[in-house]
Amino acid sequence: MVGRTAERGLTGSSPTGGGAAWAAPLVLLAVAAAWGLSIGLSKELVDKLPVADYLAVRYTIGVAILIALCPRAVMGIRGPELRHGVVLGLLFGLAQYIQFEGLSRASIVVASFLVSLYVVFTPMLLAIARRRRPSRVTVIAAVVSLAGVASMAVRGWSFGIGEALTVLSALIYALHVIWVARWATAGKAIAISVVQLAVLSLVFTVAALPGGFSLPTGPDWPAMMYLATIAGVAIVAQVWAQTRMSAESAAIIMVLEPVWASVFAVVLWSESPDLRTIVGGALVVAASVLVVVASARVRPGDRTSRETLSCS
């Protein structure tokens, strides 16, 4: 099972078929919206708490929620799931820490769109691994997405430490997307996610202890509980969806995250987007629609995955 998944991750084939072909893209769209809302909430919390403390609390609660919902998933953890989950957890944790350190030093709009550059890094890294060019659809969608990001984010701002950290986190997120596609399977999504969250909880708790552990204050707990719940549910959904799509397609759909973040910023934080932001958002949406349509096509020789997401 791991070998078949690894081959799919590097070749970019998508075991889709019928109505199920649309399920993975739609799940990723919902995940992107959930993560988009989390950006603004996270910005509020990292302005009040050290990044390690914030992430420690978030993922400790997140893994507890996931285990409570699916206790049998822990029993299903075997050697491969443990090894792969640890590596994926370390990759994701490193990306998260760097991203939120950057977010604490940059504006939320600039940071949210810079992190979406992993949509470009993913097919480029895959092309290096494959020793061949990315597909035409991937190249077109990546270029359109990059144009959208540039329209929304490039405004003459200086490229400081916050921006540099955010770009670095995008590179690590691209690696995480690729290795999820290589290792994870729909049937083991929860088991791997439990390991990932446990690793995140442990690593950030240890990192937070030397300086003294800080907890959110009363008014901040609802936001923290939302973020913790999303940490469990959204990661599981994302892993499940990525096992049924190519890594490039998953990355480009997930670039909608900053678009959702902008929508929530307008609705919840009363920010007013300008014309460049609207145009850039439209370009990103166009690229995502292109990938959704492409990923829904049944390719000759592809087999429909019969694995299901469960707590067993």
TrEMBL record:
<dbReference type="InterPro" id="IPR037185">
    <property type="entry name" value="EmrE-like"/>
</dbReference>
<feature type="domain" description="EamA">
    <location>
        <begin position="26"/>
        <end position="151"/>
    </location>
</feature>
<feature type="transmembrane region" description="Helical">
    <location>
        <begin position="20"/>
        <end position="39"/>
    </location>
</feature>
<keyword id="KW-0472">Membrane</keyword>
<feature type="transmembrane region" description="Helical">
    <location>
        <begin position="221"/>
        <end position="241"/>
    </location>
</feature>
<feature type="transmembrane region" description="Helical">
    <location>
        <begin position="189"/>
        <end position="209"/>
    </location>
</feature>
<keyword id="KW-0812">Transmembrane</keyword>
<feature type="transmembrane region" description="Helical">
    <location>
        <begin position="250"/>
        <end position="269"/>
    </location>
</feature>
<dbReference type="InterPro" id="IPR051258">
    <property type="entry name" value="Diverse_Substrate_Transporter"/>
</dbReference>
<feature type="domain" description="EamA">
    <location>
        <begin position="161"/>
        <end position="292"/>
    </location>
</feature>
<dbReference type="Pfam" id="PF00892">
    <property type="entry name" value="EamA"/>
</dbReference>
<dbReference type="InterPro" id="IPR000620">
    <property type="entry name" value="EamA_dom"/>
</dbReference>
<feature type="transmembrane region" description="Helical">
    <location>
        <begin position="51"/>
        <end position="70"/>
    </location>
</feature>
<keyword id="KW-1003">Cell membrane</keyword>
<comment type="similarity">
    <text>Belongs to the EamA transporter family.</text>
</comment>
<feature type="transmembrane region" description="Helical">
    <location>
        <begin position="139"/>
        <end position="158"/>
    </location>
</feature>
<protein>
    <submittedName>
        <fullName>DMT family transporter</fullName>
    </submittedName>
</protein>
<dbReference type="GO" id="GO:0005886">
    <property type="term" value="C:plasma membrane"/>
</dbReference>
<keyword id="KW-1133">Transmembrane helix</keyword>
<feature type="transmembrane region" description="Helical">
    <location>
        <begin position="164"/>
        <end position="182"/>
    </location>
</feature>
<feature type="transmembrane region" description="Helical">
    <location>
        <begin position="275"/>
        <end position="296"/>
    </location>
</feature>
<feature type="transmembrane region" description="Helical">
    <location>
        <begin position="106"/>
        <end position="127"/>
    </location>
</feature>
